Amino acid sequence: MITITAFERSPDGGKGLARDTRVRWALEEVGQPYEVRGVSFAELKQPAHLALHPFGQIPTFEDGELALFESGAIVFHLAQRYPGLLPTEPNARARAITWMFAALNSVEPPILDLFTARVLEADKPWAKDRLALVEQRLRDRLSQLSARVGDAEWLDGAFSAGDLMMVSVLLRARPSGILGEFGNLAAYVARGEARPAYQRAFQAQHAYNTR
Amino acid sequence: MITITAFERSPDGGKGLARDTRVRWALEEVGQPYEVRGVSFAELKQPAHLALHPFGQIPTFEDGELALFESGAIVFHLAQRYPGLLPTEPNARARAITWMFAALNSVEPPILDLFTARVLEADKPWAKDRLALVEQRLRDRLSQLSARVGDAEWLDGAFSAGDLMMVSVLLRARPSGILGEFGNLAAYVARGEARPAYQRAFQAQHAYNTR
Fold this sequence. Notes:
The structure is a homodimer. By secondary structure, chain A is α+β, with helices and mostly antiparallel strands. Chain A is built from nine helices and four strands, in the order βαβααββαααααα. Chain A folds into two domains: 2-85 and 197-209, Glutaredoxin; 90-195, Glutathione S-transferase Yfyf (Class Pi), Chain A, domain 2, CATH 1.20.1050. Chain A is globular and about 50 Å long.
């Protein structure tokens, strides 16, 4: 049985923004059952968890003798191992994988910077002035993405692990209101959320975090 | 013939820190010849280049009908397509890929934050006070990585695309002096640099940027 880790209680209270949600979504898309092991904030930094995840975060993934960390790596593993999340034609497959990397490396960092500016550095004297700068960087990046997405349904042909990751990342920009400034990206995210597999994943993490 | 893009002149003047170096390195490891097309800063933001790279960056990769962007995706494509950069045993392969994602998502962002704090925000009133915070975050992350690496030669058994990416990312932390605070990581990076394929890649980008 596949076992993943999640926050014992997600800081977002079950809004689906913690990174276990994207792994749950991938598991639902490929139809694999899984168990969840909750990890407290104290346990994240203890040797037992650090052996699974050197950076003391969630999610992790265990399946028999295989143990993985990093949500991108876990979703990619599932997409390689089971059908449904990557095209079989080699070039289309390489492009879908490119969008996974793009979501994680070019889109998620400016979104996380917003969290840093708004939350981690909220009490700093520069908080307000710097926030405007960080928000502008995020707008610049989303503007580029919006131009590429246009009115396409998904990033490159059929729904893929690239879309799963991009939608998951973009969802984290929605509470700021900045996602909503880009109508086509907001609609793209809504298409992702409407997928039955996403709905099952969302409900599962919501039930877990409000148990 | 494979064609990649690089800065027409890298801002680092050929120190190997631009992201084409990691792609050159992967191409050298798998023994594939390639051509380089230089892109000026003005061209990066023009439609012809944006069609290849929606975020207006380098490197890109073209091989026949296939066009990719994102250094992680390009290195991964090469590692999948040619032998030499990923183990064949499935679990070892999944772990090596995990380190690629870890390098790009958990280690490179705090290193790029240092660049943001030191260069992009150097003229801001908060520059000095905030730099200490950003440096501490990077130390915390490298400390976790250092604990995991220990005295191992490579991250997980034989040298892999995971090491190629981690070494490439860590090299960007060296000019700050912070990499040098972690002796085992500095030695790990030096082992990467000593590989003949890295040496060829470094020389090629150096010659290109000093032509």
